[in-house]
Amino acid sequence: MLSTQEAEGQQTVVADAPFSSLSTRMHQMFPELTCAEIDRLRRFGEVGHWEAGELLFETGRTGPGMFVVLNGRVKVYQRDGIGREVVIAEHGAKQFLAEVGQLSGRPALVNGMAVNSVDALLIPPDKLRALIVAEAELGERIMRALILRRVALIEKGAGGPILIGNSRDARLVMLQGFLSRNGHPHSVIDERDEDALRLIEQFAAQEEDMPLVICPDGSVLRHPSMPELATCLGLLPDLDDSHVYDVAIVGAGPAGLATAVYAASEGLSVIVLDSRAPGGQAGASSRIENYLGFPTGISGQALAGRAFVQAQKFGAHVGIPVHVKALHCAESPYRLELKCGGKITSRTIVIASGAVYRRPAIEGLDRFDGRGVYYWASPVEAKLCKRQEIVIVGGGNSAGQAIVYLATHAAKVHVLIRRSSFEATMSRYLIDRIRSLPNVFVHPNSEIGRLEADEIGLASVSLKKPLPDGTESFDTRHLFLFTGADPNTDWLRTCGVALDDKGFVLTGTGVDGASVCDLATTVEGVYAIGDARAGSTKRVAAAVGEGAAVVAQIHQLLAVSAGEAVALGA
To answer: Cyclic nucleotide-binding domain spans which residues (predicted)?
Structure first.
C-alpha cells in the first residue's frame, strides 16, 4: 500500500500503509478544469476527434501525451496480458487523461476508449513538459494528478506485467525489486496458485523457465533479465547515437539527479544513465529522517522519485536500466560506450556512479544471493521476512535505517556489529530509535563465521565466536548485509581519470590552484560528484549540493569553449 507522502512524491510502494490516503484525494487525482484554463492549454496542443469505440491510447503502446476532453466521454480501463479487463474510470468534458509516464512518452499503462463521439485537445509529451513549466499554478495541479494516478495504478498493478514464480526465487525477488524501485505497476502470482498453475500449463513452462512474466501486450518472457523485462515494458529509451548532449550523467542517485534537475532547468541538454533504478544506495533507505525539509522523514525511494519526475519535467532524458561499459575521452566530444552496444556522446561527463555494495569474505556467500541474503531492505524483502527472525550485519546509517524499518515487520531482529557500540558510526537519532525497539537485539563484538543451507536456501548463521550468553548461531532464513560499499569506477579505466588507491575519483587536481570545491577530475570536461568522489561526505544532502555545484562549473567550461570557438571562427 502507499503512504500519502510517497503518493505526493512518486511511484513507490510501501507495505501496510492505508489505501485511504489516496481515496480521500480523488479531487486532486481527477480535477475538473475551467473553460478559462482549457483556453490557456490550447496553445500547447491540437484538437482531435474520435468516434465511439475508437482507442485514444492503448496499453503497451507509446503514449501520445495528455488528452483534455472537450466533448464526449472516455472510458479508461485495464486489460492485462491474459485478457482480464477492469474499468478504472470514465471521464467527460473538462477532465484530462494522462499519468506521469506521459512526461517522457512512455507506453500507456491502460486503455482509453471513446464511449461516444469525442473531441479532445492532445498535448504531446514535449509540450506537456513546457506547459508544466510555463503555467506554474495550473502545471502544479496537473503534475500532482499525474503522480497520484501512477500511484493508484501501482496499487492495482494496472497496466503492468504479471510475474509468476516462487516468492523465495532470487530471480523473482530481483524482478520485483526492479519494478518496485522504478515505480512500475505489476502483480505477482505464486506458482502454486490455481491461476498460476493454469497459466504455466497454458504456456508449457518448465522449471528452468521460471519466473514466468506475462507482459501487458500478452507476450511471455521466460526467466528474463532486467534489460529484457525493461524492453518488453518499453522502459528503455530510444538513444540517439548522433545527438551530442551538453551533459551526460552516469548514475541516477541523489547527486546525479540533482545535476540533471539543475542542468536541465538552466537549458542544457542532459541525459542520465543508470543500470538499475533512480536513487542509488539512498533509494534503498527505508526512511531518511535528517534530510532538510522533511521533519517526519522520507523514504529514499520517494525522495529519488520526486527528483526523477522533476528532472523529466525540465526535459532531461533518462535511460534506465542502461549499463555504461566504458568512457572514451581521447577526443572531444566524449563517448560513453554502453553494454547494450550503443553509445552516448556528450561535451561533458559527470561521474555520479556511486558505490556498489561490499560483499564480506564469507565462504559460499554468492550462492545465497536472493535466497536469504540481501543488501538492501525494500518492501519486497520486508514482506518476505514478516513475523520471522532475521539477522542484520552493519553499524552505519544504512544499517540503522534498515533495522528500524524491518523491526516493524520481523518478529526478532538480531544485529551483529564488530565494534563495541554504534556511537562512532551511526547518527544519534537512529541509535536512540533502535534502543527503544523491544524486538531488536544488538550483539557487539560479533562476526559471521559461516552460513548453513538447506534445500530452500539460507537456514542458519553461525558466529566466529559465541556470544556472552553462549549463543553460537541463529536459525534464520533472512540475512541483511550493510557492510559498506566500494566505488563503482571500473568503467573509467579506458579514460585515464585519476583514482586514489581505493578506486575513488580524485577531484580538484586538474587545474593549477584548484580549490577543494573543484569537482573537476584530471580530464578536462569530466567531473565527479557524490559517493564515487574521493573525500565526499557520503550524505544525501552533500551529494545534492555537489550536483548543484557541478552545474556551475560545467557552465564555465562550456562558456569558455564557446568563446574559443567564436574566436577561431573570427
So the answer is: 29-149
